[in-house]
Amino acid sequence: MANGSFSTPKTYQLFVPEIKRLLSLKKLAELEKFLNALSAFDITDAWKEFTPDEKTILFNLLKTSLSVKVFETLDMPDQKHILSTLSDDVTQAFLQDVPADDLARVFHKLPNRVVKHLFSYIKKAEMVRYVNEMLSFPEHTAGSLMDPKFFTLKKDLTAHQAITALSAAVHTTTDEPLVDIYVADGDGRLLGQVALADLFRASSNMKISEIMTSTQRIQVPAILDQEKVAEHFRKFDLLSCPVVDPEGKLLGIIPASRILDVVREEATEDVQKIGGMEALDAPYFQIGFFSMVKKRAGWLLVLFVGETFTASAMGFFQAELEKALVLALFIPLIISSGGNSGSQATTLVIRAMALGEVRLRDWWKVMRREIASGLTLGGILGCFGLLRILLWPARTTLYGEHYVLIGFTVAASLVGIVLWGTLAGSMLPLILRRLGFDPAAASAPFVATLVDVTGLVIYFTAASLILSGSLL
Amino acid sequence: MANGSFSTPKTYQLFVPEIKRLLSLKKLAELEKFLNALSAFDITDAWKEFTPDEKTILFNLLKTSLSVKVFETLDMPDQKHILSTLSDDVTQAFLQDVPADDLARVFHKLPNRVVKHLFSYIKKAEMVRYVNEMLSFPEHTAGSLMDPKFFTLKKDLTAHQAITALSAAVHTTTDEPLVDIYVADGDGRLLGQVALADLFRASSNMKISEIMTSTQRIQVPAILDQEKVAEHFRKFDLLSCPVVDPEGKLLGIIPASRILDVVREEATEDVQKIGGMEALDAPYFQIGFFSMVKKRAGWLLVLFVGETFTASAMGFFQAELEKALVLALFIPLIISSGGNSGSQATTLVIRAMALGEVRLRDWWKVMRREIASGLTLGGILGCFGLLRILLWPARTTLYGEHYVLIGFTVAASLVGIVLWGTLAGSMLPLILRRLGFDPAAASAPFVATLVDVTGLVIYFTAASLILSGSLL
Fold first, then answer.
1. Is A352 in the B-facing interface, judged by CB distances under 8 Å?
2. Is this model's pTM higher than 0.90 or not?
3. d(C-alpha B158, C-alpha B210), whole Å
4. What are the backbone angles phi and psi of residue A190, rounded to the nearest 5°?
């Protein structure tokens, strides 16, 4: 879906050569001046053009305000790299200004030793508390996504007082855009929210308690999985979401912009699992070669071992094959049709489950639908297969005198195998979820392997029923 | 990733039976009273429990303010259904209040006839203009995502005047939460934006032109594809984004909450294509049986026709098969290993391209990486295959006296096929993009089919090289 008329301004192509030149000449003072005249977005855009060592040099040359902005917009692997290689004096300045939530997210990915070292640089007690609080929640939970810095109103303020308090607060504490303002009691327990528009709309002596709306349905517990949090944002069309502890105390706010990352991350994980590998934890070019091979080899081996059963199955039918070698010709055609229909069905159901469209209790509705689909799709392929054999010019030389019977064997097997593939593919994700596993593990290759082995059995059974007395 | 401690309050399970009871008794007056006491979210949650006819009855009973809220939170197919079946007097009231952007999105999916009919009910000229403006942009573009109702400031206002203008405006025009406020000149051309926090922070006689920041890098053209818009939100961590025409006139604002739907929709399309089918345009249970079968059968047939070449390829090697039937045993194992590695590679590259991690110009870097991966993965599987044959207890009965040579044939073929599968799988999405097609069409089953046919050629070539003089 290319779009000609819009392209991100690629200004970095103009200044990257200059940076590279200054780097190679080691003119660091000049480079520092040049870099700090650029915008954070320009630098982030150009970041991938540099080697890890160059990145370290460049980042150390940025002034603190710029380095914080660049850090915020870089991807996780680059953030990790920076925090691990920053020079001591730069670290000192940098760590005081970087937002606590960004820091906590990177700390989750760094070795304990490095985190401890970095913590020793943080001067503000408040910052230490924020980061520690966020680190206390596991990755991929609401608690690890939230911004622990927020502003709350008391419920007995008037609208006028609230606006004054708000403008005083933005002077000092928060950089985040304000959308919804939360109301809490003296113990920090979340009471409700006030939309900024409603605050403006209210007459100035109206009490916050009269303007605020309930957050009962919107607030999420800190330990909620991020996939569920994303679902929640979509369902309620949220721009921000309050995170609470079991006592209802407000812990932080998640902005919608962060959820975009979550949705992409979760979709990527699912896509990779559906493709038959372990989910990678970094972008394609950033993950190390051996970690990538490891994540691919594991599943390939599992599938390979599963697939060796086809050799056993074929060995079992060796007598039939010797009598009618022509049967071998159609083996790849038949098992791959089963694999393809299984791959379609499993992908469809995995995605529908990820989106919450299909739930466990729907299994019977799914099964009915997929039996009908499998029979229809199998019927279509069966007819095609039959015609392919009956109408092929060289049919008698290639398939022998019994080519009509062979045609019917292939057609019947196709109906059976496509039905079985569709059924196995659609039920497997539901069975995995029922057993407490990730449905996305029912990858297309996994289903295909399962269907290959059983497909051979279906094929040779159909053959011995239809061909016994003639070829067999 | 289940999470026990949090579940959406399923209060609807309490009132659905009551609604069903009143429906069956046709006590519509009582039902109307009961329904209008519920919240919009409760009704949306419960919506899927009713049949299409019941939905029509229920929606017609809702008071306008509630029906608008319910409409906004329902999925597209339900929105379409409602607009197509609404009774005339309800339509009249309803259409005056529903947000123009929601309406335009549904209108895109409705037949022209219905849209015309509905237009005749809209009384407000402004609303007609908004909807028409949005309909003038194709679906899946920035223009179709934006909210055409927005508030702008003039640049020579003071901060104090701006706050006054803003609070006057929220009284009358907008329901959307305010995050960024845009600044436009007399012709509506976008000049910049003011973060609400900055407006509060500024001293009251500061000019907007001094507070505002540039939107040059953030604004998007109305015809930009939604996938690019989503990428844009993520890159700049946006909570809202201005949409402009070629002259720079502000046309509307896209809120981040809408982008969550886009990201999910695009990921779903990619997942379904990777699974080897056309992307469905509705949730699993809402799409009609025959449209679903059509979208699956098309690709299954294409793959089937491709796969019939395996029968031709095998026919070509029939002489070898007659001499060494044992070769047939390993065919499924070998071709499926090629298919599995191809499926991994294509999925990986398609997703990396969708995320912008891999671009066309990176093809050589990808190719180098995948040649190395293919050789490593093929080597691992080859060793396993060799050992499987050499150490199998019944090796001489099953594979004959030349089982060592057969082992090496299988191992060599595995290296070749996995390398070829990995290479084909990784390059195909890039080639498709280069030719102007969607990379996601290089689905796992498509690559597997491609690799199956060539895999047979590789296998029999390896066999004739290694086994000539012994078995062949």
1. yes
2. no
3. 9
4. -70, 125
Cβ contacts of residue B142 below 8 Å, gap of 6+?
Answer: B220, B221, B222, B223, B224, B226, B229, B241, B243, B254
Please classify residue A13 by burial: count the beta carbons closer than 10 Å to its beta carbon, then call 0-12 exposed, 13-18 middle and 19+ buried: exposed
Q: Considering only residues 245 to 304 of chain A, which have any Cβ-Cβ distance to chain B shorter than 8 Å?
A: 255-257, 259-261, 263-264, 267-268, 270-272, 274-277, 280, 283-285, 289, 292-293, 296-297, 299-301, 303-304
Residue closest to A327 by CA, chosen among A233, A181, A459: A459
User: Which amino acid, A190?
Assistant: L
Quick one: which of A390, A415, A351, A381 has its CA closest to B299?
A: A381
The alpha helices in B237-362, defined as continuous H runs, are 256-274, 289-316, 318-323, 326-329, 331-354
Per-residue pLDDT of chain B (472 residues; tens, 9 = 90+): 333 335 444 566 678 888 999 999 999 999 999 999 888 888 888 888 888 889 999 998 998 888 888 888 888 788 888 888 887 777 777 888 888 888 888 888 888 888 888 888 888 888 888 888 888 888 889 998 998 888 889 999 998 898 888 877 766 554 555 667 899 999 999 999 988 777 877 888 899 999 898 888 889 999 999 988 998 888 888 888 999 999 999 999 998 888 988 888 888 888 888 888 888 877 888 788 888 888 889 888 888 888 888 888 888 888 888 888 888 889 999 999 999 999 999 999 998 888 878 888 889 999 999 999 999 999 999 999 999 888 888 777 777 788 889 999 999 999 999 999 999 999 999 999 999 888 888 788 888 888 988 999 999 999 999 988 777 7
CB A102 within 8 A of CB A307: no
Sign, Cα dihedral of B272, B278, B283, B285: negative
Q: What is the DSSP letter of B39?
A: -
The DSSP element (H or E) to which A314 belongs, if any, is helix A289-316
Would you call A406 an interface residue with chain B, using a CB distance cutoff of 8 Å? no
Q: Are B127 and B100 in contact (CB under 8 A)?
A: yes
Closest CA to A332 of B465, B164, B454, B266: B454
| C-alpha span between B385 and B417 (Å, rounded) | 13
B254's tokens: 């896209």
Residue that the structure tokens 């957050």 belong to: A215
d(CA A107, CA A134): 10
Q: Least CB-CB distance to B285: which of A296, A365, A456?
A: A365
Name the residue type at position B131: V
Rounded CA separation A164/B162 (Å): 16
Taking a C-beta distance cutoff of 8 angstroms, is the pair B178, B147 a contact? no
Q: Is A385 exposed, middle or buried (0-12, 13-18, 19+ CB in 10 A)?
A: buried
User: Does B228 contact A344 at a Cβ distance shorter than 8 Å?
Assistant: no
d(CA B100, CA B136): 13
CA A181 to chain centre: 30
Q: Note whether A243 and A219 are within 8 A (CB).
A: yes
Q: Decide: residue A250, CB within 10 A, 0-12 exposed, 13-18 middle, 19+ buried.
A: buried
